Amino acid sequence: MRSSNPVFSRRGFSRGTGYAGFNAPPQAGGPAANPYAGANPYAGTNPYATEAPQYAPQHTPQTRPMTMDDVVTRTGLTLGTVIVGATVGWLFLTGQLGFAIGAGLAATVLGFIQSFMRKPVPALILGYAALEGVFLGALSGFLNGLPKLSGAPMQAVLGTMAVFVAMLIAYKTRIVRVTERFTRFVMIAALGFVLLSLVNLLFMVFGGGDGLGFRSGGLGILFGVVGICLGAAFLAMDFKQVEDGIAYGAPREESWLAAFGLTMTLVWIYWEMLRLISILRGD
C-alpha cells in the first residue's frame, strides 16, 4: 500500500491491507518480503525479517530500527522549527507578502527535493519546516490584522489540533481503518481536489474575481470542508505508514521521513482551516 505522502512512497513503506498494531507482525495477506530486511542489518534479528540472521549485529544507534520515540522526537523537532519560523514571520514579516510568498516557494522546492531523494536529509527537512513556518507566520499575521479575521489564525491552530487528536483517537480505536480501498479513494479524491484548485487558480489569474467560485460562498465552504477531511484522511494514512515502518524494522533514519510527512499533512490542514474560517467570516 502506498502512502498518501510522496515522501513515504519514494522509500517504500508498503505492505498489505489490514490493521497492524505497533510492533505487531504483519497480518496475513501482506507481502512475504520485508522491504528493510536487506537494508537494515539490525532487522535480521527481529520477527519481521524474512531470513534468519547470519551474524550477531552490533546494536548501535545507526543500525537499530525505528521506534515510536524516534518518530515523536523528530516530529516534535520539525514542528518546533515550523513554530519558530512562524514566530519570526509573524513578528517581523507581517505585511511583507512578497517575502512571505518567496519563503513559501522556497519551502516547496526543498520539499520536492527531499521527496525525490532516496534517503532523508535532516537539513532539507528542517529547512523546509523553517521556510514553511515563515510563510505561514507572515501570512497569518497579515490576515490577523484584517478586521474580519482577527483571531482567525489561532482558531485555525486549535482546529488543526482538534483534527489531529480526533483522527488519532479514531485510528487507535479502529474506527478508521486504512485499507487498499480507503487509500485508492483518498488518492483519487485528493487528485481531483488539487486539479480543481489549479483550474480555479488559473481562472482567477486570467479571468479575475474568484475564478470558478471554489473559495467563496457556499461552494467555497464545501470545498474547504472537503480539504480538511482529506487532510484528516492523510493523517490516518501517515499513522499507518509509521506503524508499518516500525513493524518492519525500518532503519532509524526513516523517522525523519515520518516527521516530514506528518508536518506536510498538518500544514495542509492548517491552511485549509484558515481558508474555511476566512470564508465563514465573509472575507
Can you offer a commentary on this structure?
The chain is an all-alpha fold. The chain contains eight helices and no strands.
Brief sketch in words of this structure:
64% of the residues lie in helices and 0% in strands.
Secondary structure category = mainly alpha
Main beta sheet: none
Beginning-to-end CA distance, first to last residue: 40 Å
Proportion in helices: 55-70%
State the shape: globular
Roughly what is the average pLDDT, rounded to an integer? Answer: 81
Tally of alpha and pi helices: 8
Whole-angstrom Rg: 20 Å
Give the beta-strand count. Answer: 0
The fraction of residues in strands falls at under 5%
Low-confidence stretches: 6-32, 38-59
**Strand-and-helix sequence, N→C?**
HHHHHHHH
Helix and strand topology:
Blueprint: H1 6-11, H2 68-92, H3 97-115, H4 122-144, H5 152-172, H6 180-207, H7 217-248, H8 254-280
Helix pairs in contact: 2-4, 2-8, 3-4, 4-8, 5-7, 5-8, 6-7, 7-8
Note the main attributes of this structure.
0% strand; 283 residues; 64% helix; mainly alpha; single chain
